[in-house]
Amino acid sequence: MKKYYFLSVAILLTLCIFISCSEKGDEYIPVSPVTADLTLVPYQKLSDYHFFEGDIKDQIPSLNVIPYEPASSLFTDYASKKRFIWMPSGVAATYVADNKILNFPVGTVLIKSFYYNTIQPGNVTKIIETRLMIRKEDGWKFYEYLWNDEQTEANLVSGVDFTNGSSKTITFTKPSGETVTTDYRIPSDAECFACHKINETGTPIGVKPQNLNHNHTYGNASKKILQKLVDQGYLESFPSTIVSTIDYHDTTQPIDLRLRSYLDANCAHCHQDQARCYYRPIRLPFSQTNIDSNIGICLEADEQISATLIKVISPGNYNKSIMHYRLMSNEESERMPLLGRTIVHDEGVALLEQYISSLTQTCN
User: Fold this and answer.
1) Could you read off the pLDDT of 103-115 as tens digits, one per residue?
2) From what superkingdom does this record's organism come (predicted)?
3) What is d(CA 69, CA 137) in angstroms, rounded to the nearest whole number?
4) Can you tell me the distance from the alpha carbon of 272 to that of 302, in angstroms, rounded to the nearest whole number?
5) 20 to 30 A Cα–Cα from 347, which one of 5, 37, 88, 196?
C-alpha cells in the first residue's frame, strides 16, 4: 500500500507541475521548418528551403509561410500564380505609403510560382517556374527555379542559363476555350532586373499596401491581407485610409478604376519615375492615372507609329490609340509589355477597348 501511495503522490506532483507550467504559458510552440540562411542561399533545389509541406507540387505553405494575392495581377501568358511571404522570427515590415512597397526586413523571402491548370493533352496542372526574391544586407536578389516534368522538384537556374534565359514550349487552353502553343519565356537575370528596378536598384513590384488592402481566404476565414500580416507579426501596422487598386475583372466596379488597376499591375513598373521607361511621357501607377495626360488621354506620343496612330489614347476610338495597338501586337519591337508575354491578353485588350470607347473628351 505504501508503494502505491508514493506512486500516486508522484503522479499528482507531476500533474501539478505540468498544469503550473501550462498556466505560466510554457507550452510547446511549433517552429517553422523553413531554412533560408543568407550565407548559403540560393540553394540548388527549391525543396531545400522547406517552404511547402507534403508533396511540393501541391504548394501547401509551411508554418509561417503566408499566402497573398494582389488585387490585380500581372498577365503572363495566362499563367496562374501562387504567392507567399516568409520572414525570419523577430522582425517585421513597416508601412511607407499606399503606393510604395512595404519596407521589408533583411531575410524576407517573396515566393511566386507560375502554373497552368489546362496543359494539354488532358487539362493537366503543371508548375513551370518559381521565382524567389530574397532581401539580403546589400539589397534584393533574384533567383529562378525551373520545375521538372515530373513535378517533384524545381532546380536553380544559374550560370549561362540565368544570363541568357530560356524558353519552354507549352500547349494550354485559354479561358475562352482556345488551345494555343507558345514558347513560355523563363526570364534571364537582366530581364528580371529590367522590370524590378527603381533608380537602378532591384525592388519587388506588387507588395504595396494599395494592392494588399483586400480580403484573402486563410483556412476557413476571410481576412484582409494586411491584417493577416499584422497578426502574423510580419507587419507593424497600416492606416485605415489606404487608396486601393481593385480587381480589374470585377465588372461591378467603374471602368476607369478597372483599367487603372490593370495598367498599374501590367505597365506601371516600367512607366514610372526612375524606372525602365521613365523617358516616355506617360505615368501609369494607380496613384497617378487619375490625371488624363498621365494615362495618355489626348497625349501625343513621343514615338508615332503611323499617320493615324498619334495619340497614346484617342478618346472614343481605340483603333487610333497607340496603347491599344501595342497591347494588340505580338511583335517584340512593338508589343507592350515588352517582357512577360508572348501572346495577346484578350481580356486586357477588351477592357482597354471598353474604356477608350467610354471617353468623350475632345482633343485639341
Assistant:
1) 999 999 999 999 9
2) Bacteria
3) 26
4) 16
5) 196
